[in-house]
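name: query_chain
kind: protein
chains: 1
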Amino acid sequence: MTRKPFRNLVRFIVAVALLAGGGFLIWTQRGPISAAFAADKPAHAPEGAASPPSPIAVPVDVTRPRAGGIERVSVQPGTVEPFEMADLYAKASGFLAEQAVDIGSRVKAGDVLARLSVPEYEKQVARDRARVKDAEAKVRQADAAIAAAEAEARAADAAVSLAKAAVKAKTSFRQYREKQLNRIKELAASRAVDARLADEQEDFYQSAVEGESSAKEQVNAARERLAAARSKVVQAEADLDEAKAGVGVAEAELARSEVLLGYTVIKSPYTGVITRRSFHPGDFVKAADQGGNTPLLTVERTDKMRVVVQVPDRDIGFVDAGDPATLQIDALPGRSFEGTIARFAAAEDPTTRLMRTEVDVPNPDGKLRRGMYGRATLTLEAGSPGAVRIPSAAAVERKAGGVAVVRVAVDGKVAHRPVTVGADNGTEIEILTGLTPADVVVVRASRPVSEGTPVATSGSAR
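structure:
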């Protein structure tokens, strides 16, 4: 074959290829080409002439905005810890006489878990109880002594009154004898009576004087006895106070002994479960203050647990007590546990830039256990009221100041809608103004579309 026929063959093949490509381009771009042809035609086509072909609708995926703003959440690893936990040590050294629980036992607050045998404490309690009884007996004796002393004082007081009455009687009798003596003396002076009668009356008078003096001395003696009786009352009252003080001392000693004996009884501080046991009945247990560094038992409160979460720096400013939290545990798939943020450190760890945050989670069925691991979803801030959410891909233009443009489908055509953007979680954006749940938002299109482009919608808002 010569060169010239070969070149002609090549030219023929290229021409065929160009014609085929041009035909395909004309077929795929009928709208624009028809529009170009239409531009060359008169504005008023003759009646009955064929109308230009309609533009082809561009397929687009659409959706409707979801009502409600985007919550600020922080999803972080969380570790379950008991709300309270106590290692129970012995305060007194002794032999483990009784232990009613074992690992896994459910206990209630106040339940007796174990008892130690310390005979010397038991004897000390018995001795101190006897001392209390002895002191109480001394109080009763002192009470009786006071009663006797008061009775003696009353008798002495009565004796004083009696002696005073006797003095009055003796004084009256002395006065009578004095008057009688004076009358007889007057009669004897007038020789109306014998002088010996006057001497006799003088003796009677002197006897009355002595009787009066004796009565007065008896009053003084009665007063002395009354003073002595009153002193006995005071002494008895002092003895009573001493006896009562003795009772107080004895009771204090007994209380101390009972406290020491009470250390031999180990009780649960709260409702929970036994997670550790270190001794068996018969073992000698050394008191914690005597070098015993191994706890008898460990009890954990399980009706409520605390989940420890380390919150990163970007979320720390939004953490507040009472914020809701949801916990998913790896060991318990399919379950969610609701709780609230109860406390947080209010300071970052300078090494990790994380803040310890604790979530209180109810655990009525005991499924949450110390050491379990999972994810805690902390809802730190509620979404903006009245806002809607759309996929992040639906915003075709993002401008400064929270302004963006969203394409919406209105009557089968694209319309560009300016909106105000709020939060953005990477998947959805929050639209504060410009959209409603009734709008049809274009998420993506098969090719670029502009304002007024016809579209064929498909998706959740079709």
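note: Confidence is low (pLDDT under 50) at residues 1-6, 16-46.
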